[in-house]
Every structure is written in C-alpha cells, then in structure tokens.
Specification:
Elements: E1 4-8, H1 15-25, E2 28-32, H2 33-43, H3 46-56, H4 63-74, E3 82-86, H5 92-103, E4 109-116, H6 119-127, E5 129-132, E6 138-140, E7 160-161, H7 168-182, H8 186-190, E8 195-199, H9 204-216
Parallel strand pairs: 1-3, 1-4, 2-3, 4-8
Antiparallel strand pairs: 5-6, 5-7
Helix pairs in contact: 1-9, 2-3, 4-5, 6-7
The structure holds adenosine monophosphate (AMP).
C-alpha cells in the first residue's frame, strides 16, 4: 500500500505545490479540504453559501464538516493509492477524526511533514499569487509572471484568478489560526515518531527533494 501523509504548514508554505508534485511522481492523491470547500463555494451549493463568509474572513469552518468531506473523499481512493492530506487536519478534533477514518479503512499515517517558514516572507508570497483559471498553473506578481503578458505559459489561456482570502489582513488571520489551533496538533504525531520538519523557504525543487527523502525512509 502507498503511504498516507499529512503536509502541515501555515498558508502559503507550499503544501499545494508539493502535493501536486507528489501526485505526478507517485501513486498518491491530494486531499485538500481548502480545494473541496472552494469547489463548494463556486458551485453555489447550500454548503458553499454557508462556508463562504467563514473562509473569506480567514476563520476555520466546522470540524464536522471538513471531516465529512474527507470521509467522503477517502471512499473514492483505492487501497493502493496513498493520501496526501493538505490543509487537514487543522485542529485536535480533526486529528482524532482522521485517525478514526483511516483506522476504519485499515490505513494509517506514515509521515507528518511540517514545512517550516518565515511568516513575513509568506505574506509577501501569498499576497502576490494568482493562477491560470483554466489549467491551474501558479504565478506571482513579483516572482513568476507569465512569459508573455496575460497569457498562461502552460495552456495559452488569458484568464487568471486570485483567491479572495489572499489579502494581507486575511492571511495574517489565517496564520494566527494556524499558530493557535493547528501547530498544537504536532505533539500528537511527535509521540508516534512520525514528524519530519523541512525548511519550506527553499526553492520548490529543494523542498521536493527533502520530501522525497522522508518518503524513502
Ligand atoms: P486552504 O486552502 O487550506 O488555505 O484553506 C482555505 C480556507 O478554507 C481556510 O482559511 C478555512 O477557512 C477553510 N478550511 C480549509 N481546510 C480546513 C480545515 N481542515 N478546517 C477548517 N477550515 C478549513
């Protein structure tokens, strides 16, 4: 069976980027509660309407709701695929729910990988980021503009989008939530000896190599 891992780190640490690279190179599937919630908001469903204001404020949606999303998504991945939990669990109750959800399926967590980052640098990273609305390729106002103005390098689209919660005030709020509620779940996994810390301020390739090293253990 492939490995089940949690990518942990404040918003903008690069969890999503690394999850996509892992998906490309391993039989692993990204399970991002943030992506699931954004899809619900976009669809205009009742769930989406309920969570939109909470997300826009940078606060956390309810534990039961995100755990139900993960429960549902875990049913869709087979036993041979590993799960990359990205943005979940974010609180202690979610960490306990995840244990139960995995145990019910005969799975267990192999690694919790924490990406360590500098908060001020992160604000700079997050407030400039945008993505292609068609293929999802990531860009940045200061660090990675499309090679041809307003044209996606990957698919040629001219449409781009920004997350509404990627403004400085909300980013600071999301980081405070991370420090208060998410960082405290690390000791649960430290007791099991499955936590690895990686310097998340390095380049994408450096961080990727460090994660691969953990997975190879
Ligand atoms: P993310 O894309 O992981 O940064 O998540 C964006 C927003 O979705 C967060 O600021 C929260 O409002 C909400 N969210 C995502 N995952 C969770 C979670 N596991 N628990 C509670 N709220 C979440």
């Amino acid at each position: 069976m492939a490995k089940d891992i949690i990518l942990l780190g404040p918003p903008g640490a690069g969890k999503g980027t690394q999850a996509h690279l892992l998906e490309a190179n391993h039989a692993m599937v990204q399970l991002s509660t943030g992506d699931m919630l954004r899809a619900a908001v976009k669809s205009g469903s009742d769930l989406g309407k309920k969570v939109q204001a909470v997300m826009d404020a940078g606060e956390l949606v309810s534990d039961d709701l995100v755990s139900a999303l993960i429960d549902d998504r875990l049913n869709q991945i087979g036993p041979d695929a590993g799960a990359i939990f990205d943005g979940y669990p974010r609180t202690e109750p979610q960490a306990h729910s995840l244990d139960e959800l995995l145990e019910a399926r005969g799975r267990k967590l192999d690694h919790v990988i924490e990406l360590e980052v500098d908060e001020d640098a992160l604000v700079d990273r997050i407030t400039g980021r945008f993505t292609c609305a068609v293929c999802g390729e990531g860009y940045h106002d200061r660090y990675k503009l499309p090679k041809v103005e307003n044209t996606c390098d990957e698919c040629g689209s001219h449409e781009f989008k920004r997350r509404p919660d990627d403004n400085e005030e909300t980013v600071r709020k999301r980081m405070a939530e991370y420090r208060a509620k998410t960082a405290p779940i690390l000791p649960i996994y430290e007791k099991r000896g499955i936590v690895s810390r990686i310097d998340g301020m390095g380049g994408i390739e450096e961080v990727r190599a460090a994660i691969e090293k953990v997975l190879a253990d």
